[in-house]
G-protein coupled receptors family 1 profile domain-containing protein (Gouania willdenowi), 342 residues
Amino acid sequence: MVTRVQRRVFYCPTEQSYTSDETELCYPHLGNSSCRRIVRPLSVSVPIYITLSSLSVLTVTLNLMVIITISHFKKLHTPTNFLLLSLSIADFCVGFLFIFQILLMDGCWYLSANWCVFYSVICLVLTSASIGTIVLISIDRYIAVCDPLHYPTKVTPNRAKMCIVACWFCSVFYTFVYIEVIKHPGIFNSCTGQCTTYIHLVAKLMHLFFCFIIPVSIIVLLYVRVFVVAVSQARAMHSQVGVVTPHGSLKVNRSELKAARVLGVLVVGFLLCLTPFYIVLLSVRFGAINMTHLVFVICLYYSNSFLNPMIYVFLYPWFRKCLKYIISLQILKSGSSEANIL
């Protein structure tokens, strides 16, 4: 006779509940003190593990290519690309978090309590840093499109680097404020084989506002403004009516508009990947959720780190050109960093 069981398992960025119809003990020799493990048919578990493993490898590899590209080629050392570099570093590290998610697929945590805390902290730091960087990218594009004359003086490489450092510092600070109990790992586990961290209700609401509602509101408002200005400029460029800037400035404007469109796609992908997760986060208070839905939203949440470099591949010609340099090992040649890849 199959018993219906309800458990909690920690995953980034908060803990969650789910239901399972077929379970067994994570540590059979511990009896009732052990957590229960989810048992799935091979036809279900094998594709899940293959998919997560593939996403992990591709996420790490593609983001590593972005990191090498922007770091190596001096022509790409612009404020916007420095922000993309910060995002790629966060996404690169997220690729390794798939490993922990694979370990949690059956509902059991086989590592120590300290590793549970490490996973919790790293995941929160990386995801909050990614969200903060997306907001910085939106601000960068807003200034570039809506105030192009003052963009070179307002947004400089040094200021971009300072904003990136501040973003990561705030992410670390926010994480240690969010996770209250960090000195006593495992104290809130209800059974052996569980990875939970106590999070106060106020902290959960804070996370919802600071990591989703407020950033999304800023991003949407900025890109609505960018879209309106981009459409008006595109019409003026097409008709050549009312365009009083020199030809050189017109070319720069077209470049900025193209970058805004590309990064707009990046933001849309960001919202599509994160929104389902926070919908589930809100709905969990009304009851347990199905494990299939839980796995899907977590994987979708992490897959944003895989999606970002794919956007660069398809929409940035310079990135495709740089990939050829890297794959053919031309970047090892003397003076390759000075190559004109734009």
Strands lie at 5-11, 14-20, 23-25, 36-38, 289-290.
